[in-house]
Amino acid sequence: MSTSVAPSALPVVPDEDEEITGRSLRQIVWSRLRRDKTAMVCLVILILLYLIAIFAPFITSMLGVDPYSFDGESISDSGGGPIGAWGGISSEHPLGVEWGTGRDILAQLLYGLRISLLIATTATILTTFLGTTLGIISGYAGGKTDAIIGRTMDLILAFPFLLIILALSGVLTQRLTQLGVPDGNPSRILYLIIVLSIFGWPYLARIVRGQVLSVREREFVEAAVAMGAGRPRILFKEILPNLWAPILVYATLTLPTYIGTEAALSFLGIGVLPPDTSFGGMLGNSVSYFSVVPSYLFIPGTVLVILVVTFNLVGDAVRDALDPRAGRV
Amino acid sequence: MSAYVVRRVISMILLLLLLTFVVFILFSLLPTDPARLTCGKSCTPEIIEANRHRLGLDLPVLQQYWEYLKGIFVGRVYAQDSPDPVVCSAPCLGYSFKRGEEVFILIKEGFPATFWLALGAFVMWLAAGISVGVYAALHRGKWQDKTVMGISLAGYSLPSFFLGLMAIFFIVIRLQLLPYPSYISPFENPTQFLQTMILPWIVLAILYAAFYMRLTRNQMLEVLGEDYIRTARAKGLPERIVIRKHALRAGLTPIVTAAGLDLAGLLGGAIITESIFSLPGIGSLAVNSVNDADLPLIVGITLVTATFIIVANLIVDLLYAVIDPRVRLA
To answer: Which of A104, A145, B45, B221 is deepest in the core (most CB within 10 A)?
Structure first.
């Protein structure tokens, strides 16, 4: 379908280009990303990290460690401190053992990676979904709907979210259990995913809403309306494809933020319960011991930082690839 | 302009009312019984019922909300018909029976530590963030720029609690350069105050400065690409003047607004930094109130913190128009 051909001197984008840009955007981004060496290295690391997380039980059993079994041999009888330097590093326990139980640190890290990635990835997907949907609706519908969604966003953004998440964790986790989610860690993990998304979507919705406000005035939307397209079709088939760039950028940069927030919340004590563990939880436990066994602080901390840095590097690269202006700068 | 201000103030007040209502309802609908939380292990149903009545928790939720709102302006008396009524003078944000103190007073006591922490970190991160950001922008694409961006990336990838614990480990425990943090008012003992605050300031400032370096750099690069900068250069102004008078002024405006909001957020308590450095501020108070399920205190802190953010939003928007004459308010 060819409707208008612009005079070559004028940089007018013909309507049917929308579909072509939708497809070629991916190609442009991919070719730019491939040229970015740091990004490619980080991408490979990320894929490896996800694979490690998915196959954690398999990897730990291959290494002969596991996060749950106590090892009385590796800790001292008096006080329960690890025997040996750096938190009891030995061939049996490559990264040392936990104080008091002798549980293997490496295995705990691998299982912690699983939980961190599970929470951060799921929450990012949910946030992106909520933010995109509500942002599009808010921007396109205008009027009362826009006002209601807008005030809700203002309200959520004004909340001290760490405090609210902490304060509600006990009762809402209970509520989830009553709703049939298995007691203990499944409901705690689900709670974190839900609250992170609820407090996260307004940021994206704002960006999306702003984009929609400009896209909805374009001719191809008008044409779709004139041809009698229904509202869902206009929203999700005509407008949404024009928004992928900001959404993708936002999502890739949100994921590392969520890893950090999840770690902070676990650090404050509302993450998964022992015997399961997460980076934040391990760092939280380290507070009592790190003056004696500094590795309790440095090992999970370093892994956490590497994880977040890698995600941030990929996020930056994606943004540079998607935003030509940022690239020129 | 004045019509705009009036409209913004009205919508701010409405948002605040909505906020108090939502917070109030949120915590009233919880399955936990606030009356049950008022007494410890030696609780009998009679005591719980008596406390419920004393706290006004036997009233319908909407009426409780009304009493609460009224209390903020005219104060309120709990347990009026009992021999020992509890007076909570205006502004009454509720009464913590756990701590035997008015919520407003508890927050007021926590405010100085939070205020000093926020202020010191604010000055540091703005100074470092803006100067380094401008430096990077002026060396765009060169190694200086790349180094700054690398440092910035590392800075905002560091979780605050990890950075804080590392600072304590190296500076306080291993090198013993500073005593263990123990907060004291700057007016009582300035030396100890500085010794306590310097690490939290630096930790908090690093996290924010990392973000502000990036923000400043991007803003400056955007402004430096504008036509009026080319004009300024074309008419032969020295580069120093072009940067200082033309680019900085326009480039820094969005940073002022971001800084205002961040400062307001911090004034509501830096939960993690305060807990790590045991500063008795609003953030620590918040964590403690959560740990012992002190509902009136949680509600009070939430409201105060959110109010800071909402008010700061308005101030920053108005300030923006003052600093940047190109912005027209309508």
So the answer is: A104
Does the distance separating the beta carbons of B302 and A164 come in below 8 Å? yes
Q: Which two tokens stand for residue B283?
A: 């953030």
Q: Please, which residues have CB within 8 angstroms of residue A294's CB and are 6 or more apart in sequence?
A: B169
Q: Which residues have a Cβ under 8 Å from the Cβ of B326 and sit 6 or more positions away? A: none
**Shortest alpha-carbon distance between residue A118 and chain B (Å):** 19
- From first to last of its 330 residues, what are the pLDDT tens digits of chain B? 678 888 888 888 888 888 888 888 887 766 666 676 666 666 777 777 777 777 777 778 788 888 888 888 888 877 666 667 777 777 888 888 778 888 899 999 999 999 999 999 999 999 999 999 999 998 988 899 989 988 998 888 888 889 999 988 888 888 888 888 888 888 888 888 888 899 999 999 999 999 999 889 988 888 888 888 888 888 888 888 888 888 888 888 888 888 888 998 888 888 999 988 989 999 999 999 888 878 888 889 988 998 898 888 888 888 877 777 666 654
Helix orientation angle between A105-141 and A279-286, rounded to the nearest 10 degrees: 120
- Residues 195 to 224 of B: which have CB under 8 A from any A CB? 218, 221-222
CATH superfamily of A108-322: MetI-like (1.10.3720.10)
ipTM here: 0.83
**Contact with chain A for residue B13, Cβ under 8 A:** no
Domain B106-329, CATH homologous superfamily name and number: MetI-like (1.10.3720.10)
Provide block-wise average pLDDT over 10 residues at a time, chain A (329 residues).
Answer: 43 50 67 84 91 86 75 68 69 71 80 91 96 91 89 87 85 83 85 93 91 86 88 86 86 91 89 82 84 84 91 87 57
- Residue type (1 letter), A64: G
The tokens for B253 are 């405006």
B158 inside 8 A of chain A by CB: yes
Give the C-alpha separation, A200 to A127, whole Å.
Answer: 6
Domains of chain B, residue spans: 2-103, 106-329
How many Cβ atoms sit within 10 Å of the Cβ of residue B246?
Answer: 19
Please name which of A76, A63, A77 lies closest in space to residue A105, comparing C-alpha atoms. A63
Q: How far is A177 from A186, CA to CA, in rounded Å?
A: 9
DSSP, res A84: S
- Three-class DSSP labels, A112-145: HHHHHHHHHHHHHHHHHHHHHHHHHHHHHHCHHH
User: Which DSSP symbol is given to A75?
Assistant: B
Round to whole Å and give the CA distance between B135 and B238: 17
Q: How far is CA A268 from the centre of its chain?
A: 19
Strand partners, A97: A104
Min Cα separation A230/chain B (Å):
35
Query: What residues does each domain of chain A span?
Result: 108-322
Could A305 and B301 be called an inter-chain contact, meaning their C-beta atoms sit closer than 8 Å?
no
Stated pTM of the model: 0.85
Longest Cα–Cα distance of chain B, Å, equals 85
Among candidates B249, B226, B220, B243, which has minimal Cα distance to B323? B249
In this complex, is the C-beta atom of B302 within 8 Å of any C-beta atom belonging to chain A? yes
Q: Which element (helix H / strand E) includes B114?
A: helix B103-138
Q: What is the SS3 assignment for B254-289?
A: HHHHHHHHHHHHHHCCCHHHHHHCCCCCHHHHHHHH
